[in-house]
UniProtKB/TrEMBL annotation:
Pfam families in the cross-refs: tRNA_bind
Gene: ygjH
Name listed for the protein in its UniProt record: Conserved protein
CDD domains noted in UniProt: tRNA_bind_CsaA (cd02798)
InterPro entries, per the entry: NA-bd_OB-fold, tRNA-bd_dom, Tyrosine-tRNA_ligase_regulator
Gene3D superfamilies: Nucleic acid-binding proteins (2.40.50.140)
Length: 110
């Protein structure tokens, strides 16, 4: 495994977020379009969590979010952050990372 310097890790803006809106992507079977409150702003992500979570399970869930990921287009929708998950190599399971207990939205992960 390659190692990185702390300075590289420090460039990552990882925060506690709260999912405020979830909808299925109209043109992709496995994608949700998700709005996430990360404190001072709301970010949108396109995520392949359909096989693992229902819309109801995701709504209002506290999550761990990489906020300073470069924007990308996924099936025509802008994705500007990433929900962090633990996922098995065969992709049979994917579990969202969440704070151990409730934390304020926008708190930085260090």
């Amino acid at each position: 495994m390659e190692t990185i310097a702390y300075g590289d890790f420090a460039k990552l803006d990882i925060r506690v977020g709260k999912i405020t809106e979830v909808k299925r992507h109209e043109n992709a079977d496995k994608l949700y379009i998700v709005q996430i409150d990360v404190g001072e702003r709301s970010l949108q992500t396109v995520t392949s969590l359909v096989p693992y979570y229902t819309e109801e399970e995701l709504m209002n869930k506290q999550v761990v979010v990489l906020c300073n990921l470069a924007k990308a287009k996924m099936r025509g929708e802008t994705s500007e952050c990433m929900l962090l998950c633990a996922e098995t190599d065969d992709e049979s399971e994917s579990v969202l990372l969440t704070p151990e207990r409730m934390m304020s939205t926008g708190v930085k992960i260090v």
